Amino acid sequence: MMRFATLMKHPADWMTGKNANNEVVITSRIRLARNLNDLSFPGWATKAQRIELLELMRPKVEALKVMKNGFSHELSELEAIQKQVLVERHLISREQAARGQGSAAVVDRGQRLSLMINEEDHLRMQSIRAGLDLRGAHKLLGKVDDELEQELEFAFDSELGYLTACPTNLGTGMRASAMLHLPALVLTEQIGQVLQAVNKIGLAVRGIFGEGTESLGHLFQISNQSTLGESEEDIISRLERVVNQIQTHETNARLKMLEDEPNQLSDKIGRAYGMLSYATMFDSKEAFAHISLLRMGAAMGYFSDGVMQICDSMMMDIQPAHLQLHAGTELDPNQRDQIRAEILRGRLQSLDAPATSISNDHSAGGEDSTGNLNFENE
């Protein structure tokens, strides 16, 4: 099995946006919740029961073909910083990081697939892909679900579907989500209108780490709220349609900024580049905001190829636990802010300054992004 250090050295393709169209839709994720029949949910189980279930389930998860040479660790054996790094990489949830004995994470070598044992449910399986690829993530996870269903008896009711610890996951037990980068909608003050329209049709909008977290770097996670009474295909199709529409609105907002206020746009991107290149202290929020503008500039042609991938890598590496892992010691907030700025300055040394202006050839066919936001009827 893979060691933690090896996992850190080889980030997944989806973490760096390699070979993917991810200018607006950064990642797609499918998550399935499953429980074993006639056993207490983890939140109600005793420590002995959780350990017993882990010993039953973990070998079967590790034996999956896709998990060959993967990473498998009991959470109680990992240091607090290591667990937080896994959260920052979206490989485990914040809830699972807080669990004690009897909880484990099993991750495939490419880090596209992560299975959490004894999180809120006995098994939480997730697949992450770069760009808008909900169907690719679903296909991969479907194979794993089918394989495990041959080995384990999942709790299932003919009327309610898969039984889960939280009633909102009843039915398919599936959460489909996409992480979107929406700086232009934020800067043009259209984001409220867009998110309101999304909420109206029963989709949830959350921050970078899901429920209860804020948006950093203009990143928003959009997912289905209900899993009962809809098929997996229906859930994916609806989310796909809405995400495509938001992507169009964001693209049009960028083009409109370029058309109406080209000097102000290049100024914002240039200032972000200057701050990241020379500042000596950055908290997470400010750093993410500047990297977000650089990322948008890269997508619009202000930088040479490859800068968007550098931005994605920086967003991962400047998070608190990653910084402390990099330093090899626990850091107070001031120390983190200094090291964060140092890393950013180092990464930007090799980058040329952004272009002061770019052509607007692509905007000719673009419609005004302030148009119809009624996703339900489009």
Summarize the entry for a quick read:
With 378 residues, this protein is an alpha+beta fold.
Q: Any low-confidence stretches, pLDDT <50, length ≥5? A: 362-371
Give the helices and strands as they follow along the chain: HHEHEHHEEEHEEEHHEEHHHHHH
Task: Report the sheet-strand fraction.
Answer: 5-15%
Radius of gyration: 21 Å
Structural class: alpha+beta
**Rounded mean pLDDT score:** 90
Largest sheet: 8 strands, antiparallel
Beta strands, count: 10
Under CATH, the homologous superfamily of the largest domain reads Glutamine synthetase/guanido kinase, catalytic domain
Overall geometry comes to: globular
- Counted up, domains total 2
Percent range of helical residues:
40-55%
- At CATH's second level, what is the architecture of the largest domain? 2-Layer Sandwich
User: First CA to last CA: what distance?
Assistant: 48 Å
Number of helices: 14
The CATH class of the largest domain, by name, is: Alpha Beta
CATH topology of the largest domain: Creatine Kinase, Chain A, domain 2
Q: Which sequence of strands runs across the widest sheet?
A: 2-3-4-5-1-8-10-9
Family: Belongs to the ATP:guanido phosphotransferase family.
Keywords: Allosteric enzyme, ATP-binding, Kinase, Nucleotide-binding, Transferase
Catalytic activity: L-arginyl-[protein] + ATP = N(omega)-phospho-L-arginyl-[protein] + ADP + H(+)
InterPro entries: Arg_Kinase (IPR023660), ATP-guanido_PTrfase (IPR000749), ATP-guanido_PTrfase_AS (IPR022415), ATP-guanido_PTrfase_cat (IPR022414), Gln_synth/guanido_kin_cat_dom (IPR014746)
